[in-house]
Amino acid sequence: MRVTQQRATSGYVRLLLLLMSIVAAHPAWSRCTDWTPFAKRSAVTRPIAASDLLGIAGIGRPDSEPIGGPSPLAISPDGETAAFLIARADTATNRYCQALVLIDLKNSGPPRIVDRGGDFIMTEVVARGLYIPNGFPRQIVPVWSADGRSIAYLRRAHGATHIRLVSVATGKARDIISQAGDVASFAWMPGDKRIGFAAEARRHMMERQINAASRRGWLYDERVTPNTSWRPQPKAPVANSYKVVTLASGRVTDATDQEVRLIRANADRAANPEKARAGEASASTEPTAPSPLSARRLQVTDRNGREVRCDQPACTGTFAGMWWKGGGTTLIFLKREGWDHRYTALYRWLPATGAPRRMLRTDDLLERCQMHLRKLLCLHETATHPADIVQIAPQTGKIETLFDPNQAFDRLDLGHVKRLTWRNALGLEVYGDLVLPPGYRGDRPLPTIVTLYHSRGFLRGGTGNEYPVFLFAQRGFAVLSIERPAIFAERFPELTTFDAINAADLENWSERRSVQSAIATGIERLVTRGIADPRRLGITGLSDGASAARFALINSDLFAAASISSCCVDESAPALAGPAWAEYSRKIGYPPAYPVDNEFWRPYSFVRNARRMDTPLLLQLADSESLYALPTITALRQYHQPVEMRVFPDEFHIKWQPAHRAAIYQTNLDWFDFWLNGKIDPAPEKTDEYRRWRRLRANHQQNGSTRSNRDP
C-alpha cells in the first residue's frame, strides 16, 4: 500500500488546510494542546456515547480497524524505552490530535509526551496502473538514532510531509523539509549525523505536467477515472528520488547506491513481518501451492546454516510475525488459526530439538509486534476494548498490559458480546460476534442489524467504521458482526493468479452467493433462538460489505432496512470508472459495457431490479464514489422506492474526516430506529429529515410493501 498526503483538490480542502495552519493560540486548536492519552479509568460505569467511539486514541494512526502492517512501536537501542505516535479524532475541529509518546519498558515509569501536532496522512493503493487515494490513515513508525538521543518520524503540516527530529531529553523538535516533494520514507545513516530519505519529486513533476496540459484540454484515456475526477492521474508506479541531508548544516545531496539500499532496507524491514534473521539463522515463509491464496509454510535455516524442515501443522498457515531469540536458537512466531482463522496463536520453537510449542491461543487480536529483549511487545484488542500495548512472555504466553490510552472503555456498559460459529451452504467456516443490548434477558425478539465484513478485534462499526455496533446495542438492537468466510476460489489451488481467482469468483456470482449464504445462515440461527425478529432485520456494509448487502437485497427478502457506504459497481461501471476499469473488468470476466447483458447483471444490479427493490435504502457516499450511484438512485426514484442518498465532500473509499463520521453514525442510528422500531428523535434540527422519511414511508406503503412498521 502506497502512501499519499491529503491534497487540496477543492476549495473545501484548501480552507481546511488554511485553518489548520492558524496558530495554536486560537481556542479551537487548543483542544489538541490540552489533550492527553493518560486519562485515568473512571470509577463509575456508564452507558457508551458516540463521543467515546469517535474519540478513541489509536496507536500509530488514528483509530481504524486492524489490517496489519509495520509495528508502530519503536524500541530504543538500549531496549529500555518504546516510542510511538498516538492520534485521536476531534470532531469539533474536524482534525486529529497527535502526540509522540515514550513509555518506560524497564522500570514501568510514567509515560511522557515529547512532541505534538501534525496533520492526517492518507494512504493510497495502486490499482489498474493508477494511484487511488483510499482514505485510510498511514501507520507512522518513529525511528531512533543509534545513540538513542533522537527520534525521527514522518509528520505532515502546512501541506507537506517532512521528517520531524525530536530530542529525547528535552523534547526540542525541528522539521527537516525536503524541497524535492513529500517524504515517503527515511533512514538514519551510520553515525547519526545524516538522514537519507525517499522523496516524491517525480510524482510532483508529473502532477505539474498534468496541470499544465489542462490548457489544451485533458485527453480522455486510461489515466482518467471519471467517478473521481476528469483530471488524469499519474500512471503508477512512479519512482522516488533518494537524497541525504546533513543534520548540522541542512545540506542535501543525492544518495549513493549504498545509501539508497539502506533507505529501502529500512522500509522493507518495517513492512515485512514474515521474515526474521539473527546471524546465520533465518526464517521466512513460502506458499504451499501455486495459488496466491494458499497457506504459507515456514522455512528455517539454523544458526549453523542448515535447513530445518518442519512437517508439523503449526509450521503451515497464516503467519503474522516471527522473531529469533538466543542468537538464533529459538524462533517465536504468531499465527492466525482455528475456525476461519479466528484465533491468534503464539508459538515457541527450538528447531534443533523438536516441534513448535503453542504458548498462547486467544480470540483477542494480537498484531504489529516487536521483540523487546526477552518479551514480545504487541498491540492488543478485544471485542470490547480498543488497542492497548502489551508485553508477552514467550516462555509462558502470559500477557501484561503496559499502556492503555483508552481506559474509559473498562467502565462503559457495552452490553453482552458472544462469539458464534457456523457454516454456510458450501460448508465454509464462518464466525461472527453477537452483541446484545445492556440488560437484555432473552425475553423477546430484537430488531437486528448485520455489520460486515470483518469482525476481528474491537467492534468499531464494521469495515470502514460507519455502523457503530455498541451504539446500536445501546438503542436496543441486536447486532451480528460477521467475519466473511474464506474466498470461494480458495477451494481451487490450481488458480495461480488473482485475475483467475476473480474470474472464478465471478462465475455465476459464486463469491457473492457464498457470502450471502453466510449471512442468511447466521441470521437463521438468531431467529431460531428467538433473539432476532425476522420482520425487523437490517443490513449494512462498505466495499465488499456493500456488495454483500446489495446482493442480499436483490436475492432475498430478509431485510426491512439497509444502509450502504459504497455504490454501485454494476453495468454502468465501465463508463463511470473509465477505460482502465473497463479493460480490467473485461479481463476478469465481466461483459462489455454495451450492449448491456441483462441476464448477467440481473442478480447484482439495483437498476435491473429497481421495480421490486422496496427495502428502504440509505446511501452515505464519498463524493469520489458517488457518481457510481446515479443510475441506481435514478432508477429507484423512478419507481418511487424508499431511498435517500447523502454525499460527503473530499472523501474517499474510507471516510477520513471526523465530523463526517459523527454525522454518518447519527444518521445510521436514526435511519434504523425509524424503519425497524418506528421511532423518531424529536430534536428540532431533525424535523426536515423525518419529514422526508415519512414521505418515503407513505410511498412505501402505498406501493404495497409488506414491510411496513409502526408509525412514529
UniProtKB/TrEMBL annotation:
* Superkingdom, taxonomy of origin: Bacteria
The record's keywords, sorted A to Z, are: Signal
Q: Where is this region: Disordered?
A: 265-295
Position of the signal peptide: 1-30
Question: Could you confirm whether the keyword Signal appears in this record?
Answer: yes
Name the InterPro entries for this protein.
6-blade_b-propeller_TolB-like, AB_hydrolase_fold, Lasso_peptide_isopeptidase, Peptidase_S9_cat, WD40
Does the record carry Signal as a key word? Answer: yes
Q: Where is the Peptidase S9 prolyl oligopeptidase catalytic domain?
A: 520-678
Q: From the Swiss-Prot or TrEMBL record, give the protein name.
A: Atxe2 family lasso peptide isopeptidase
